[in-house]
Give the backbone structure.
Amino acid sequence: MPMQTAELTETDLAMMRCALELAEQAGAMGEVPVGAVVYRGWQGGQGGRILGQGHNLRETRADPTAHAEIIAIRAAAEALGTWRLDDCSIAVTLEPCPMCAGALVNARMGRLIYGCTDLKMGCVHTLATLCTDERFNHRLTVIGQVMADPCARLLGDFFQARRGLDRPAKPRPDRGPQSI
């Protein structure tokens, strides 16, 4: 069940599906499969206009800031010619980390729709509440756990495959020799 502070629309769901497609592209490149889409026009039957989109590119660009959200925010700001994205929404497949949650606040993003929670780095609802913290001069409307199962499955499958490929079996002294 989504954590809601606002109403989820069909446009939001369509944008989350687009973010999932971007996440799949990232995974196919060997990047952590996270996708993000910044858009306008979520109300009523307006559809939605994509202003920026992205997926993780940290490995490809050797850039620790190349998260899906940052790439999408930069593209949207460039498309609009302003850093203020207060009438925009972002759909992202994973709960934003501290850097990305901070960027959403600093961009004055209007709404955040996210997929699965991030128990290790999530700073929207899990480890902190940066997007709704009343001490900041801007807060977002947040809807969490939207399409959480497919988002989590994509990440889980990626890391399971990565562990299987990247980490050969190591002898563990507490279990004796292992056959490889």
Observations:
- Residues 169-180 have pLDDT under 50 and may be disordered.
- The chain is about 35% helix and 15% strand.
